[in-house]
User: Fold these one by one.
Assistant:
Number 1:
Amino acid sequence: MAIKYINDFEFEGKKVICRFDFNVPLDKDGKITDTTRIDSTLETIKFILEKGASKLILMSHLGRPKGAPEKKYSLEPVASYLADKLGVEVVLTESCLDRGIKTLLTLPETKIILLENLRFHAEEEANDHEFAKRLASYADVYVNDAFGTAHRKHASTYGINAAFKGKALAGFLLQKEIAALDQVLKTPKKPFVAVMGGAKVADKIKIIEELLRSVDSLLIGGAMAYPFLKARGLEVGKSLCSAEDVKLAKAILATGAASKIRLPIDHIVSTNPDSEANTTNNESIPEEMMGLDIGPATLDSYAHTIAGAATILWNGPMGFFEKFNFNKGTFGIAKAIASSKAFSVVGGGDSVAAVNEAGLADQMSHVSTGGGASLEYIENGGSLPGIQALRFGIN
Ligand code: AMP
């Protein structure tokens, strides 16, 4: 069944409850340090308001409170930021179950209500039926635009759909994420090149297996490369490399798709992450050293493959990029993708952070707002609980 989008829905006079992902990073004074996630919801909020909705009830989680209120996870900074951006008062409720909400909904002067952090109640993550019903009771229509939490089967992303048959819609952000990821997953223009990095093979084994079905080349970097090199019988010194990951890498290399996998041909190494960087002249890492970035020859060769690609998917840094000495591979890959004419999608927290830090985000075709969600979407061949609930409804 096709997902219903907000584009053609008649919102005039309707009370609309919207699930967003306002899970923004805060500094120790409670100031928002990166507003991207809130900014990416403004298009949907403004659209629904312009279409004449009578009330907008916004809901989200923030951080990882343990099912009880914690001041540091209050959505208060989000309420202030939204009010500022929209030029409308945003009323933050004391709790998402506050008895006063029903009264607020009758006040003509109150247009936007932000429910306090959903995860102050354990029922949210437990997908509790009664809790979902209570949230649903505030509105006539449900909009989900929280791609970052679409892989969670929670009350506000999943259970709530039961109360809105035919009136559960996807917002613009969800629409964009689905379109971009589907283009990579279902109809990738060839050559399709995936770049995978990060720390652990075990975390990404499913996505590697899924991608090997459709990619022409899988360029591996970061600490993820060492188990593959070790599985091929090479020396990896003191690099991050668990026995479990070597076993998984061996199994992948034993399949017919192994010829699509490319591994680093040189490395930036050091005795520890705080020491000076050295470059190896081949794929082996000396016994007393650890690999901390891909080397210049690897970067050149990967950049060349990227330049010839028509579709690119990138997830995970190429090295310990938080340290200046070991960030060249990650920023080099970001630049290579930015200069290519391919349809390019970047997903995953660290690679997105690197692209933003390099100021290259607007040169990518799509930068996903959902790290875990974008990976799971690809792993599962395009299905996530929050999206399936919109597509098929639930009972
Ligand atoms: P992941 O969450 O699996 O994408 O891993 C990201 C983390 O892996 C980042 O914090 C990187 O600094 C780290 N990382 C990537 N390559 C290396 C490496 N060669 N050695 C140590 N850490 C690395």
Number 2:
Amino acid sequence: MTEIKATNITWHEGHAGRAEREAIVKQKGVLIWFTGLSASGKSTIAFTLEHALVERGHLAYALDGDNIRHGLNKNLGFSAEDRTENIRRIAEVGKLFVDAGIVTCTAFISPYLADRQAARDVIGAEDFVEVYVNPSLAVCEERDPKGLYKKARAGEIKGFTGIDDPYEPPTDPQIEIDTGTVSPREATSLIIGLLEERGAIPPLNK
Ligand code: ADP
């Protein structure tokens, strides 16, 4: 846990609660945390899921690694320390989104177990669904949509996850998806099924 630096600050409790907000949107706030190697398909699935949920009339929002690094986290690089701070901020933002009643999808490599555990602790285990997007490294490298693996193999990028920086796989993810064989649509259906089971969203036609 990062210490609070500021002194003379007091938590101010709001007057409208999460349950009241959730009643308005007829869903429960939840965080779908996608983790996996670069090019494993996290963003593709997160955005497909967001779209499918919004089309069904739900409030959903995808927070994507590269997008967040253009704004909120533009001052962070890829050192272990910065990766940890990247995930800490996302977890805190995700917590606010969940409190707002939003089905939130986060797509970050989030390679370190301890960082993902810290995110789970910040958000609360009951609101945290870990999705391990797990095609083989060979599949990711073959896709290489941004040419990053090629650069990493050539030594032009240092500290690239899966090549010369570790990826620590989840030990007990709620869902594991091998995108080598499962399409983004199929992955989305799987996750929507889980959200229905958990009562985060009502089943269709109810
Ligand atoms: P990540 O967010 O994990 O870095 P992206 O979603 O940005 O990965 O990139 C994954 C690439 O793999 C995209 O070009 C996507 O079109 C492709 N792809 C091929 N098959 C799949 C699949 N079954 N699921 C997700 N992405 C897939």
Number 3:
Amino acid sequence: MASVTFDKATRLYPGGEKPAVDQLELHIEDGEFLVLVGPSGCGKSTSLRMLAGLEDVNGGSIRIGDRDVTHLPPKDRDIAMVFQNYALYPHMTVADNMGFALKIAGVDKATIRKKVEEAADILDLRPYLDRKPKALSGGQRQRVAMGRAIVRQPQVFLMDEPLSNLDAKLRVSTRTQIASLQRRLGITTVYVTHDQVEAMTMGDRVAVLKDGLLQQVDTPRNMYDRPANLFVAGFIGSPAMNLVEVPITDGGVKFGESVVPVSRTALSAAADAGDRTVTVGVRPEHFDLGEEGGLAVTVNVVEELGADGYVYGTAEVGGVQRDLVVRVNGRQVPEKGSTLHVTPRSGETHVFSTSSGERLSD
Ligand code: ADP
């Protein structure tokens, strides 16, 4: 096992105007499960492929443990990759699929069988070892792809959207299985997904990318509690955080009636940069509801999810009508057209620079 270090790793595709991955600095601890997440085209796969050796690195370097692997061919990196399409060999049995890499490496038959059986036990695949992939369910195929990676006992697992071919329910159960399997095996894992829920539920830490640039790398908890900028604030959490521009006044920052805590120093820095507003963030689940006072939200649409409901409404904030989403108790959802009185919960507000997007509040 080993750590992984991206040291200003950069990939500029031939003919590209700007790098697909720009000076990525990221250290992944030995045994850690790190999720790379971001919208389509942000550079997740390129980062993973650079680590795998499938993509040239045009600047900076990549280390696995203390080995510089920047220019090593994939086969010398001691990694195993699980792809989105599992790419199982259709004419081979499950056992042969799982053992194929070892066979190519010249490992003897008895050892291959032992390792394949061990992996099959971990993955509940024992009864299927003699079947062909076409006689398996989607979830079982996915586990064979995992098994193929496990038998190699690599230093690092790389996974590129390995759950995207599964239906919603299977995706949820398989993500739990992969996360607990990774913890049991303790193999350093870099996992790519565009799905922030997957990122937040699986990763020890999550790295958010946008336009080839790393935005924040942190534990899921910190990412949710203290997003570093507007992009991360809007990307992590569902439904997304309400982000509302409000004026900077002598009294500080107000969201409706509520004073939003932010340091004087941060506010004067924003004002010095020429900003007249800041952007306040409140998650839908961080409003207190009352009979009166606070912000008066006109209810336009109510989404009922059983335990919770989400109110999509409008309210006047800082003199302008704004759209707001508010989570409510699923058994007490308000009527469409009614008015909901909400106050952002103390300690659950975020303030960002409107111009740079950087976080200003503590
Ligand atoms: P993601 O995995 O986050 O969806 P990618 O790493 O695949 O993003 O792509 C990052 C950027 O690099 C995108 O703008 C994409 O169009 C570009 N790109 C990806 N692969 C190639 C390639 N082989 N040649 C040129 N540009 C590419």
Number 4:
Amino acid sequence: MTTLPLVRSDEVTRALETGSAIVALESTIITHGMPYPQNLEVARQVEQDIRDAGATPATIAVIDGTLCIGLEDTQLETLAQAKNVAKLSRADMAACIATHGTGATTVAATMIAANLAGISVFATGGIGGVHKGAEDSFDISADLMELAQTSVTVVAAGAKAILDVAKTLEVLETQGVPVIAVGQDAFPAFWSRGSRLKAPLRMDDPAQIAAAHKMRRAMGLPGGQLVANPIPSADEIAATELAPIITQAQHDADAAGITGKGVTPYLLQRIFELTDGRSLTANIALVRNNARLAAQIAQNLI
Ligand code: PSU
Ligand code: MN
């Protein structure tokens, strides 16, 4: 019989044994979302933020055919410097493990792994969603369908402003995914706090978010929740300032013929260049902010 090669870090094993709070973290943000060496610094910093907030971090990746739940520091370092690491989602994660490959997990793949390991909360930057022009390209992230079927609460700063955010919210509604804004009514726009779009739900208390997660389970509803946590005001970039930059980046991606999995990493890198690195500074601040909130939600789930 085929068994799943799943290995937990010592820290995660201890947390599971003692029943303490755990927060999952994705690895695509390390390999495809940020440049080296900031990616490594951020990966370490976010783990520490979770510890400081009273929970245990579990960064998830596939390394040499093993599904790793929690990475040791040397593994984190190798991944942060690795080139040509696969970007894994629901469609290709099993194939990567079966062929003894190495890959970073996206939101969708991290949710699957967290659920397998008994972890209910996951912090990231922004989820994937419906890309601009999806009516022609059909480019809709598998993250949305994962939120509809895997019972993990995902804390993000909304959907990246490179996406068609209105269409992203429509798909989430169709798929029955609760979208919960924290501390405000508006659905946050990743690098910016506000947007013209109102989030369907609002909860300002991590205990409420945890209670809603438990109630979905009690009702036998599959799927998770999207917690939309706005970037701290001190770190945001105004949406009006970013709009032309996003348009430029999208134009460049189209001109370069970028499609499929390459689109999101290309746009993030191009926006980094066009903002002289300010998009990265904001991205780091929002991920850390999400990690802290996720640690509080996780503590209310135990
Ligand atoms: N958010 C970030 N940086 C990232 C991503 C999200 O701030 O790199 C990654 C996540 O792993 C997400 C993926 O799941 O981008 C979405 O990719 P796609 O649009 O190809 O589904
Ligand atoms: Mn896509």
